[in-house]
From TrEMBL:
Residues 148-236 form the 1-deoxy-D-xylulose 5-phosphate reductoisomerase C-terminal domain. The gene is dxr. Its cofactor is Mg(2+); Mn(2+). One of its GO terms (molecular function) is isomerase activity. Residues 268-384 form the DXP reductoisomerase C-terminal domain. Transmembrane segments: none annotated. Residues 6-134 form the 1-deoxy-D-xylulose 5-phosphate reductoisomerase N-terminal domain. InterPro entries: DXP_reductoisomerase, DXP_reductoisomerase_C, DXP_reductoisomerase_N, DXPR_C, DXPR_C_sf, NAD(P)-bd_dom_sf. GO terms for biological process: isopentenyl diphosphate biosynthetic process, methylerythritol 4-phosphate pathway involved in terpenoid biosynthetic process. HAMAP family: DXP_reductoisom. It comes from Ephemeroptericola cinctiostellae. NCBIfam families: Dxr (TIGR00243), PRK05447.1-1 (NF003938), PRK12464.1 (NF009114). Pathway: Isoprenoid biosynthesis; isopentenyl diphosphate biosynthesis via DXP pathway; isopentenyl diphosphate from 1-deoxy-D-xylulose 5-phosphate: step 1/6. It holds the Pfam family DXPR_C. This is 1-deoxy-D-xylulose 5-phosphate reductoisomerase.
Length: 395
């Protein structure tokens, strides 16, 4: 068997750690080429010692010096590189077969595009990149013979329920609609007025999933599901009116595909990201992920509810942005990243996130981006607008 040579972007995060957990179970299949992380020096060093990558990438020279000093006693061959260009280089290097895209937010866009243009197999967790540049990214994947395998649990579930060819390209011709499940997050049972004084720690206390802080806040507001609606549109070629969202608090059914003949196919499993990660790493085979099998009788009842779009305004905004098209999803994504960061810094209140996202979406009418540079510019203009009009006004 030819080994897969893997770059893990965002190795020190939640998805990055789950990925390395699965890779470590199958050393005969996988070899690590590069690990990247923005801040968590100790974790990155421990990962380098365990996986002995050719490269480690960090964002600034001071962190790089620290990592080099800590790695020195281990006499590894790991070279420590610095900066955004290095992220693109380790994503497109000739030796690499597979790139796990697990950087959070817009910062992941350029390395993912570099991997697509180099024809890599991309395991995509970084949903923000696809929300920003879905058309350009799917076109680059086709043009350069890359592959795109979804890691987001819902999209991985849908992918598992769709027919595809030997390159993993799906056939959506008999699809009537898709149903994304959502846990409903920590505030499913709260009323809108209960949400006024929510703290970052309360918003990050997700009942089912252990995740990074940005996606945890997005899960609480259901912006995460909104981004996933846009992600599903690009991955599966389904229009917004054929994408449904249903709240399923147990997070056992990870999503489903509804076919024209009345059949619905769903994928089930425990809420552990090692399941979709192992699926995408081994596809079209299956490998052990470290996750136990489901016992439905022990699990008990599975519930389903319609989301309240008044309470989860961000989900509604995402449908609006997807229907509007053009730069609207970029604006919404960038505004949301700024608003969530401000909320986590305790500069704005929880309910301000949706309010500011809506203001940005209404205020900014940017030209439809034609190139990657246009996407980056629309993202930057939205962030500048947020800083000037919204966030600075508060301090
Ligand atoms: P996280 O915050 O735990 O990890 C993010 C990683 O990206 C870290 O390694 C961090 O050092 C790195 N990073 C942060 N800012 C960076 C920057 N500016 N440049 C380069 N690297 C940077 O996040 P996570 O929960 O692992 O999520 C990662 C991505 O996967 C997100 O897009 C998220 O939406 C998606 N995702 C996560 C989960 C989950 O269960 N955690 C599930 C589905 C999708
Ligand atoms: Mg998800």
């Amino acid at each position: 068997m030819q080994k897969q040579v893997v770059t893990v972007l965002g190795a020190t995060g939640s998805i990055g750690c789950s990925t390395l957990d699965v890779l470590a179970r199958h050393p005969e299949r996988f070899e690590v080429f590069a690990l990247t992380g923005a801040a968590q020096v100790e974790r990155l060093v421990a990962q380098c010692v365990q996986f002995k990558p050719r490269f480690a990438v960090v964002l600034d020279e001071r962190v790089a010096q620290d990592v080099r000093a800590r790695l020195h006693p281990f006499a590894l061959n790991t070279e420590v590189l610095v900066g955004a260009q290095a992220l693109c280089d380790v994503s497109s290097a000739a030796e690499v077969t597979t790139v796990m895209a697990a950087i959070v937010g817009a910062a992941g866009l350029l390395p993912v595009m570099a991997a697509a243009r180099a024809g890599k197999r991309i395991l995509l967790a970084n949903k923000e990149a696809l929300v920003m540049a879905g058309g350009l990214m799917t076109a680059a994947v086709r043009q350069f013979g890359a592959q795109l395998a979804p890691i987001d649990s819902e999209h991985n579930a849908i992918y598992q329920c769709l027919p595809c060819n030997e390159r993993g390209e799906i056939d959506n011709r008999a699809v009537a609609s898709i149903t994304l499940t959502a846990s409903g997050g920590p505030f499913l049972k709260s009323s809108l007025s209960d949400l006024e004084h929510i703290t970052p720690d309360q918003a990050c206390a997700h009942p089912r999933w252990q995740m990074g802080r940005k996606i945890s806040v997005d899960s609480a507001t259901m912006m995460n599901k909104g981004l996933e609606v846009i992600e599903a549109h690009w991955l599966f070629g389904v229009p917004p009116e054929q994408i449904n969202v249903v709240i399923h608090p147990q997070s056992i059914i990870h999503s489903m595909v509804n076919y024209v003949d009345g059949s619905s196919l769903a994928q089930l499993g425990h809420a552990d990201m090692r399941v979709p990660i192992a699926h995408a790493l081994a596809w079209p085979e299956r490998i052990e992920s470290g996750v136990s099998l489901l016992d439905l009788a022990a699990q008990g009842a599975l519930e389903f509810y319609v989301p309240d779009l008044n309470k989860f305004k961000c989900l509604d905004l995402a449908f609006t942005a997807l229907r509007a098209g053009g730069a609207a999803p970029i604006v919404l994504n960038a505004a949301n990243e700024c608003a969530v960061a401000a909320f986590l810094d305790q500069r704005i209140a929880y309910l301000d996130i949706a309010r500011f996202n809506e203001m940005a979406l209404n205020a900014l009418d940017l030209a439809t981006p034609q190139t990657l540079e246009d996407v980056v510019e629309a993202d930057a203009r939205t962030r500048a607008w947020m800083n000037a009009h919204v966030l600075h006004a508060l301090v």
